[in-house]
Amino acid sequence: MEFRIINGIKTYAPKSRAELIQYAIDNKKALVAINAEKILHASNEIRDFINMNIGYPDGIGAVWALKKKGIKSAVKLPGVELWLN
């Protein structure tokens, strides 16, 4: 799975919800929703927490940033859709 560093935050770009969940299970990491507010206003502690886990694009601002960084296939994965998984 590809990722880009956006304002110090490692943001992954899964192709699907299933890919994201499997990646988290395989790597034994927590999923952290990334949106424009976190990209712009995250403290160093929040950045460190996200970068130790798996940040995924939960908001359209994060998707736009990933696309601008060259990942044209980036999609928004609302966290609410992951709750049941």
What does this structure look like?
- This protein is α+β, with helices and mostly antiparallel strands and 85 residues long.
- The protein has one domain (2-74).
- It has four helices and four strands, in the order ββαβααβα.
- The protein has helices spanning 17-27, 36-41, 44-52, 60-68, and strands at residues 2-6, 9-13, 31-34, 54-57.
- A two-stranded antiparallel sheet has the order 1-2.
- The longest helix is centred in the first third of the chain and has 11 residues, at 17-27.
- It starts with a strand and ends in a 17-residue tail after the last helix.
| H-E string | EEHEHHEH
Helix content: 40-55%
Supply the number of structural domains.
1
Report strand %.
15-25%
Please report the number of helical segments: 4
How many beta-strand segments? 4
Write the SSE topology.
Elements: E1 2-6, E2 9-13, H1 17-27, E3 31-34, H2 36-41, H3 44-52, E4 54-57, H4 60-68
Parallel strand pairs: 3-4
Antiparallel strand pairs: 1-2
Brief characterization of the structure:
The protein contains four helices and four strands.
Features:
alpha+beta; 4 helices; single chain; two-stranded antiparallel ribbon; two-stranded parallel ribbon
